[in-house]
Amino acid sequence: MERQAPSPVKRNPHSAAASAAASFFLFIATYLAVFLALSALPWRQWMALAAVSVATIVTIRIVEPAGWPIGLLAPPARVARELLFGIAFAALLIGACDLVLMLTAHVRHARHDGFPWLELIAVYLPAAFHEELAFRGDLFQKLRSVNRIAAFAFSSLIFALLHLGNRNVTAVAVANIALAGVMLALAYERYERLWFPIGIHLSWNILSGPVLGYSVSGFVSQSTVFTTTARGADWITGGAFGIEGSVFIAAVEIAAIGWLATRSQTRPRVAQSHSLSSGED
């Protein structure tokens, strides 16, 4: 028999805004301190994941002593279901875009040297968890409890702007990453847990890069299952930035946003007497 989630505690809007502001500054300071302290260590993505994890725990413990339902702890069957749903959802989107590129931009795939298992562990796994905790985690959720539109706009904009330093980035790519931020925020809202967006993020990167052979936001995998060749303008094919630089990705993202928008929990959860990663319904 499942435990029922405690009833939400109503909060003063001014208190919620103060909590969001305090969380923001404390989170950023803690994240930077931990990341800089670990920056000399190898496997940079794991160091970033450690930094965001510590920043999340410290922020919640100080700003929300009663706990905040970050959306990680849930029954294993539910975690698996939402994670697999995210993986399948991203596969559908990437597959649709790749098919359109094959039909319109002469994209061709050929067998290559295999899957990069070490990169999966060193880069792709920690990156998906890191970015979802950073951009759809505590800070996004706190701001969403104050103003949903502001939370979506702010998190998606920062998510896109932080990719400006990536190799071969284009204006189309930045716009597409902002749309991806909206899509992933709606994916969080679908269950008010992080497993669905983590599944999307992980599958999106792995399928487009290590499997199909595109660059992933400018990052080139050392090994791929297939290689990709294409003819046409970068804004169509994605160019050296990868499939995320294609206008066709914008089309599938907008379709996904439209679908998710009709199925998401639009009323933000407020603080509850939960532990850090409670398994709330």
Question: How would you describe this protein?
Answer:
This protein has 281 residues and is mainly alpha-helical. The chain has a domain at 75-261. It has ten helices and two strands. Strands 1-2 form a two-stranded antiparallel sheet. Helix 5 (138-146) runs antiparallel to helix 6, helix 6 (148-161) crosses helix 7 and helix 7 packs parallel to helix 10 (247-261). The chain is globular.
Cα-to-Cα separation, first versus last residue: 13 Å
Q: What is the chain-wise order of helices and strands?
A: HHHEHHHHHEHH
C-alpha geometry: globular
Q: Biggest sheet: strands, sense, closure?
A: 2 strands, antiparallel
Query: Low-confidence segments, ≥5 residues, pLDDT <50?
Result: 1-9, 270-281
Roughly what percent helix?
Answer: 55-70%
β-strand percent reads under 5%
Structural class: mainly alpha
Radius of gyration: 19 Å
Number of strands: 2
List the strand order in the largest sheet.
1-2
Mean pLDDT: 90
Counting DSSP H or I runs of 4 or more residues, the number of helices is 10
